[in-house]
Amino acid sequence: MCGIAGIIGSDNYQFEIHKMLESQAHRGPDFTGTYFDNGFATLGHNRLSIIDLSSNANQPFKDITKRFTIVFNGEIYNYLELRDRLKNDYDFQTSSDTEVLLAAFVKYGKTCLKMLNGMFSFAIWDNLNKELFAARDRFGIKPFYYSYNNNKLIFSSEIKAIHKAGSDKIPNENVWSGYFINGSYGAPNETFWKDINQLPAGHFLEYSNGHVKVEKWYDFVDRVRHQPKLTNYQEAQEEYIRLLVDSIKLRFRADVPVGFNVSGGLDSSALLALANISQNDISKIEAFTFYTNNEDYDELPWVEQIIGIYNNPLNKVLMSSNEVVSISKTISDIQDEPYGGIPTLAYSKLFASASKKGIKVLLDGQGMDEQLAGYDYYRNASNVTIQGIHKSPFRKNMLSDAFIELASKKDHPKPFNSTVKNTQYRDLFYTKIPRALRFNDRVSMAHSTELRVPFLDYRLIEFAFSLPTEFKIKDNQGKQILRDVISKYVDKKVTYAPKRPLQTPQREWLGEDLKGYVENCINSIKSSEYKSWFNIKELDLEWNRYLAGDNQSSFHIWQLINFSLLMS
User: Fold this and answer.
1) 300/288 Cα distance (integer angstroms)
2) Is the pTM of this model over 0.90?
């Protein structure tokens, strides 16, 4: 939806806030606003108008008493229901979800967070008590970064904005080491940059009298334990599809055109089928998919089969190897941290295509594998985080001994009495979902489009987690309950097809079409100020092994590209 920024300190920081907003202007080109409580707080906002397009809903936004001012990024999908609940306590001046969120905070304080169904990152300044309250949604769909030094709190939607405010750009060596050794993108509160933190998903931040406190507000484990313990499969299916349809229905709330991102798999099929139920007719809604002209990876035949049911206009977006060099640098600058690879580049082109057609909101099927044990490693008790590989994708031999020592071992909590559920929990809060949400937030907002993920509705995730494993896995295949509930709407060839692990010919492109590009990246590392992090001899050997055919995984090569783009 937007970009937020702020500096809490003893100046007005007018120059800094404008630099911050300028650096993330792509997040909200429709309006840029600022608020100054001189000597105490400076707030800024980049607006992407989605709900209530009028200027009355511009931010920073003040409540009717002028005491509280909010900057908000995201959407509160149940804002209409909350507005109805609050109508006798608050005199609404707009039809925006921003005002509903602020009104809920004014009435209920921090307890309002549990009432919200949405994706959100926001900060509210209390100009009477000179206090800041900020919060992030349950799964961290929307970002919130901050730095606190010398009694000055800086926060924003993107890391680059904090650097623009004067924070030194120094790499966090511990996080970088962990990234190369085990593929970690850091703990929920960490970033790849020293002294810049992220507010973890499901947490809030309070600033008062020069002190910052971060506290957890969403207890996922407790919520799962309080779910009804359904043992009847028919009842579970009925409740699951009810939640699915309602989740998608809520995410169609917008005052701008909405579209779909689709692949050829089960999740996209489910999204379209259930959207058709919730909206009655989706035939005029634009759909977007990418392809690479490589039949070994492209999902176009399956996409066209799925789309053919509903007759959506299908926008086919080509990703070619000769685009990688230019797009990879652009996306690296947008991401501020390492990102997933060529699939992320291809995904970014979908948002560019949608933006050109005037579509500001896209729905996507992210989150289904994690809630219903869709990946193969859920079924074979493996500790890996990448589907479809048998050899470790990491090559710590490329690193120097001293750099290896900097990595801290990441032992993720195991709060459930189930290996499958603990692995799902890891993916939801520590590995797959956090990184995918960050990748996708940046590439969507880079093109001023909003990504919505109905399968990450908290009601859906909590319910799915509570289900018996046999409702999720059957005949060595995950997502069983989803397959069964949509089988009446989707061809069985799609419904019961196994999951395909790869989407682009990244392995081949890096070793063939992009060989020279990779070698340039490796050479830039060798001459960079961070070359001491690496064992140069082993780095060269690994590249030669890759070219010779040791390329089941290309992740370690993409790590080098990521590093080169960001650091050299």
Assistant:
1) 11
2) yes
